Amino acid sequence: MKKIGQNLFTYVDERFKLQGLFDFAKHKKVPEHEDSFWYYFGGIALFLSGIQVATGIMLLLYYTPSIEAAHESIQFIMSQVKFGWLIRSVHSWTANILIGILFVHMFSTFFLKAYRKPRELTWITGFFLLILFMAFGFSGYLLPWNELSYFATRVGTDIAGSLPFIGKWLKGFILGGTSVSQATLSRFFWFHVALLPLAAFTVIVIHVLLVQILGMSVPLRLKDKKVKEISFFPDFIYKDALGWTLILVLVGVVCVFLPWEVGKKADPFAATPLGIKPEWYFTFMFTTLKLIPSHVLFIEGEQLAILAFMAGGIFWMLAPFLDRKAARERPSPVFTWIGIIVLLYIVVMTVVTYTVPKL
Amino acid sequence: MTKKIFSIAVFSALSLLPLAAFAQKNSCLDCHSGLEAELKAPAMSFAQDIHQQFGLTCKDCHGGNPAQASEDKAKDKTFKGAPKRTQIPEFCASCHSDAAYMRTFNPRLRVDQFSQYETSKHGQLLKKGDAKVAVCTDCHGVHGIQTAKFPKSATFPWNIPQTCGRCHADADYMKPYGISTDQLTKYKDSVHAHALFEKKDMSAPTCNSCHGNHGAFPPEVKSIGSVCRQCHPSTGELFAKSPHKKAFDDMGQSECEACHGNHKIERPTTAMLGTTDKAVCVQCHDKGSKGYQAAGELKTLLDGFDARIQKEGATLVLAEKKGVEVSEPAYRLQEVNTVLVSAKNLVHGLALDEIRKKLAEGEQTLADVGKASAAALDEAKFRRKGLIIATFFLALFGLALFLKIRSMRKPA
């Protein structure tokens, strides 16, 4: 048996030259210290992305992207297709858990200043991945064509429409018209299963390549200390796999006890239900837009908030270049405080969204 | 922003439209606007009046010459002033009964209100000199008259019970007539009021749906059935074919009202059937009689079917709580419920065989729903078992990994 395995490996290796890859993995070292726990969130995010692709492909077998049949096809998947409920619930739940993990991964990278030279591009590709996965979430939310997703999309695109200068054009482009319709569903489907996966795959490849080439960053406070190292393969992969296993158990439990609901079919003529809100990871922005006064000085409040979020996003993306101290391998408490404030703002606004009635 | 400014401008212009009518010289409004209390009221409320919206002014009802500045000249020989209360119906009818005149404003508007009013209890009493009875202005208002389609109008469906109740629920006011004043309270507890106020169903009956509006009169025993048939025709047809029809006619009993009541018509349930004290059947059918026996059978039949629907419904709710998608069987259960509603309606025809036949139509669907709900519960169990097994193997795998990681930490 062992001989057959060896022969098979030799056959494949002669053609694909895999030995080089294995040697790289064996010799690659990963630092291990008290903060190395945070390294594993990147691997978990990659693992969940794989689940997304696998379950997404399976859902495509039965999903119909038309306003007449989308909701019915989801209902069919949830009630008639063997394990359809599991595949759809895993897809929806892991999508949400994945975005949560991405936030954790991003903030841990920020607070450990792992973005500092020479990993600026790793940070920027990671930032783009968060934006891409949020776009995945926004486009995927409409696909079941239920009441909540329909009105949340309407609210979301209205917000995009209030952007100065390009708002009207952008809203029309997203919707494929003036309102949420078949054209919108077709577009969102196309975004969700074609454009975004292609973009995400490309950026993930660059991001992972950069991580492999540059290795894991060691926190600033440990830079002059001797840090223990473990081999990437198999030691680090074993630990990664343990994290994946735990996440898999969590996904299984939530899918069995709280399968993702189908909801009521969207009725474009119905009144907007009370308390409509987008997916949780958009709520900090959504609540800000609701709470901001209609006018701040000479500018409309909503426009000001959107511009502030855009400016904040650009600042966040360019943090490795703006944090000059970290770039010189020196502590940068100002950026640590900025990170704490941003994190607190996101947490507080998200909590406010779900706890303050009639917001 | 431009849109907002434009909307505000258009809205403001539309709000000011009624005032445009006053742009012409109108000494009536000039003077009355400066007066106090009830003399000022006409000038204030006329801007919202439907007559004003059709271009009519004070002089069209009251005569006079509003173009004159002085009171003496304005109140010329054509001036009629305010009509006496007893003259109001004729005063309004001078236009509203004139088909040719009314056609110029609204060709579809009826012109028989006054002739109907004369046949009403209100009109009859007014003719006898009773000035307390309702005249046009009591229901429609005086200078702020609105169309019945306007939700704030006193004659809009939601407001009618309160409009009638202003007099009919006032014990002191109704004392001389010797009629009860609990109609409004009773109506508010009825299934009809529930449909009107809770479900906002504008087609739900209010006072005028049964009593008429301008020709309002309490329906006689013989006509109650016809009144109810306006909305419940199939029930009426079934009743007409039933043995009850002749029996009720012979006894001089009103058809629907005998069992369902009048103002407080509650949601009918099978509690009305059967042989218990609450059942309406025992009002006429003595113990041991054929009717008494049939009443018991009816109740058993319908309650038995209903109980099975409730049981399957509860199972589906439980399966849904456990996370299984059950919208399809839930929808089919609604179909079975529709069969039950039809069977309940057939009770008015008193044909037990027809009721059994109707219920049999739902049997197969109910059986299918039963299978689906049981399968849904099994599916919930299967999922939990699957989770336990999968978690067990994942835990084993995790434990193996953990032990391997721990062994790696130990120095060689």
Description:
The complex is a heterodimer of chains A (about 350) and B (about 400). Chain A is mainly alpha-helical and about 350 residues long. Chain A has a domain at about 30-280: Cytochrome Bc1 Complex, Chain C (Up-down Bundle). Chain A is built from 15 helices and 4 strands. Chain A has helices at about 1-15, 20-25, 40-60, 70-80, 85-110, 120-140, 145-160, 165-175, 180-215, 230-255, 285-290, 300-315, 320, 325, 335-355, and strands spanning about 30, 230, 295, 300. Chain A has a two-stranded antiparallel sheet. Chain A has a two-stranded antiparallel sheet with strand order 3-4. In chain A, a hairpin with a 2-residue loop joins strand 3 (about 295) and strand 4 (about 300). In chain A, helix 11 crosses helix 15 (about 335-355). Chain A is globular, with a radius of gyration of 23 Å. Chain A starts with a helix and ends with a helix. The model of chain A has no long low-confidence stretch (mean pLDDT about 95). Chain B is built from 23 helices and no strands. Chain B is flat. Chain B starts with a helix and ends with a helix. Chain B is mainly α. Chain B has helices at about 1-20, 25-35, 35-45, 50-55, 60, 70-75, 90-95, 100-105, 115-120, 120-125, 135-140, 160-170, 170-175, 185-190, 190-200, 205-210, 225-230, 235-240, 245-250, 255-260, 290-320, 325-345, 350-410. Chain B has a domain at about 290-410. The interface of A and B includes residues 239, 241, 248, 252 and 256 of A.
